[in-house]
Write a structure and sequence with these properties.
Rossmann fold; 384 residues; 7-stranded parallel beta sheet; alpha/beta; 3-stranded mixed beta sheet
Length: 384
């Protein structure tokens, strides 16, 4: 099977491309490489050193004798996208190719507009290219659990059955996004649902939780294949930030009360979920939604786990509450369903078993690359 990984130079995309290639899929990466430009723009870099994409792909071929094709360009350019699709002719398209940072989208008007144009227009172009020339191709789209927000009822997988005035129907689950980035993902979901319903396309939307970890079987083969570990206030996650803070002796910064709860999964589970979705495609006309996470943790939970693991390594770890730069509920109900991928064979990794190997050991190993000026948040959701 031929799989095109859009955004294959990024964190999830790179691990996915190597994983699929290693399992016999014919893989191509399409990427504009703009994420590297954004790092330069805001003056940050991943903790782990990342080689140029051409060098990474060549190293993979040297180690495995498996080739990965590369298309460098932007999917907001429809002619480029069409040309790449016709040259590679994929059976499945894995779409990671979006600006994925909530803080980046909230910097100012320009970054909000850029995020929405990049994400929504790029996905629309892809849908039209599929409608015109690749109607049987299966789209596996990375969504986000952040589309749902934090409702005071259980979060179902994409749809909810309701009764109203004596009538019953199954409808898309209500969305309450918390940033301009998450709002762009909601727009994507509506557009993809429309394309499946009206044009008969097939798509799987993977509403992913927060991903953690550096190592997969493939990215651990050689340092030139290593994956990103972002910890800064724009592209970093709370868990990554806590691990870096523990490594350099900075107090763990819990935003607000710390009760914010989200879904989490290991990067090894992310790539497996992609494989499961590809091998079990949606039907023509079906817009299928899987909630892609394995565990639920609050920010306080994460801080406690990092403190315990850091202490075991001999690190002195303190926890401090920090003024929350985001507008969000800091204590809330959160119960999300995630059975569909498990039913299809996902065997999860758990954070308690892999925190040291997947994150803390890397934080300690590369602590000399930490920029202490990037640890604290610089973007606020609050109206100034």
């Amino acid at each position: 099977m031929k799989v095109l990984v859009i955004g294959g130079d990024g964190y999830c995309g790179w691990a996915t491309a190597l994983y699929l290639s290693n399992r016999g899929f014919e893989v191509a990466i399409l990427d504009s490489l703009v994420r590297r430009h954004w790092d330069t723009e805001i003056g940050v870099q991943t903790l782990t050193p990342i080689a140029p994409i051409q060098q990474r792909i060549q190293r993979w071929k040297d180690l495995t004798d498996k080739s990965i094709d590369l298309f460098v360009g932007d999917i907001t350019n429809y002619e480029f996208l069409q040309g790449a699709l016709h040259k590679f002719e994929p059976n499945a398209i894995v779409h990671f190719g979006e600006q994925r940072s909530a803080p980046f989208s909230m910097i100012d008007r320009e970054h909000a507009v850029m995020t929405q144009v990049n994400n929504v227009v790029g996905t629309l172009n892809l849908l039209y290219a599929m409608r015109t020339d690749f109607p049987d191709c299966h789209l596996v789209k990375l969504g986000t659990m952040g589309e749902y927000g934090t409702p005071n009822i259980d979060i179902e997988e994409g749809y909810i059955t309701i009764e109203h005035n004596g009538r019953k129907d199954t409808l898309p689950y209500p969305k309450q996004p918390g940033s301009m980035y998450h709002l762009s993902k909601v727009h994507d979901s509506h557009n993809i649902h429309f394309a499946c319903r009206i044009w008969g396309l097939r798509a799987t939307d993977l509403n992913q939780g927060v991903v953690y970890g550096v190592l997969t079987e493939e990215t651990g083969m050689d340092e030139l294949l290593i994956n990103r570990l972002d910890y800064d206030g724009v592209f970093g996650t709370a868990l990554n930030r806590f691990c870096i803070q523990a490594a350099v002796g900075h107090p763990l910064t819990v935003y607000g009360k710390g009760g914010q709860t989200r879904g989490f999964l290991d990067i090894r589970d992310t790539v497996r979920c992609i494989e499961i979705a590809i091998n079990n495609p949606a039907e023509p006309g079906e817009f299928r939604v899987f909630n892609q996470f394995t565990e639920l943790f609050s920010i306080n939970d994460l801080a406690a786990m990092v403190k315990k693991a850091g202490t075991a390594l001999g690190l002195k770890v303190e926890v401090e509450n920090f003024a929350n730069p985001r507008v969000e509920l800091e204590e809330h109900y959160f119960n999300a369903k995630n059975t569909k991928l498990l039913d299809l064979g996902l065997q999860p990794h758990y954070l308690s078993d892999s925190l040291l190997d997947s994150l803390l050991n890397f934080a300690v190993k590369y602590q000399n690359r930490v920029d202490n000026q990037q640890i604290l948040p610089k973007v606020s959701w609050h109206r100034k």
